[in-house]
Design brief:
This protein is an alpha+beta fold. The protein contains three helices and 13 strands, in the order βββαβββββααβββββ. The chain starts with about 30 loop residues before the first strand and ends with a strand.
Length: about 190
């Protein structure tokens, strides 16, 4: 049975990881980057070392998680409306972000392509949403050992719930990059 959508990206008390006020999926951060010019008359390029550093800093601050390597193209022309993608390691899991240039001076809008979920909070929300069906105030949920999950919208993952001496599966459906979830008790 599918339950009403649980919108989980609005506060740190819900399953989506966030440590600062932001609108995930619209704008993660706007980064002002210096532009490196190869020479007179040459196309200006973004300073990609600074871009990678600022993307990592911004994501680390926003999600309050470990951000590892940031992999972006080696050279990107600075041009209004230009786009490129980077892959970022979030707690050891890959997260692709789409980067949109705004203006030609290096201002960027970073948009994730997946939800970043805090597993402990997903487990708590799962138990809260399914409390009436479980009818066990001591029920426990287990969604695995990773503290954070990076999940593409439209994908699902499985958790186990133990209630009244029975273990049942719960399918967690990820609806959007904001961490909106539904739970399906099996």
């Amino acid at each position: 049975m599918t339950h009403p959508k649980a919108t989980l990206a609005r506060s740190p008390a819900h399953g989506a990881v966030n440590g600062a006020d932001f609108v995930l999926g619209v704008v993660l951060a706007v980064l002002a980057l210096s532009v490196a010019v190869a020479g007179c008359g040459s196309q200006a390029h973004l300073d990609m070392a600074k871009a990678r550093s600022e993307i990592a800093r911004s994501l680390s601050s926003t999600y309050a998680v470990d951000v590892g390597a940031v992999r972006c193209p080696g050279t990107v022309d600075a041009e209004d409306g230009g786009t490129f993608a980077c892959t970022v390691s979030i707690s050891g899991q890959p997260l692709t972000v789409d980067v949109h240039q705004r203006g030609d001076a290096g201002a960027l809008r970073v948009v994730p392509t997946a939800a970043v979920l805090r597993v402990a909070q997903v487990q708590a929300d799962l138990l809260d949403r399914l409390a009436e069906q479980l009818r066990d105030g001591h029920a426990k949920a287990d969604c695995g050992h990773d503290p954070v999950r990076v999940v593409v919208p439209g994908r699902s993952f499985e958790c186990q719930v133990s209630a009244k001496g029975t273990i049942r599966s719960v399918i967690v459906h990820v609806r959007d990059v904001n961490g909106s979830l539904t739970f399906e008790l099996r």
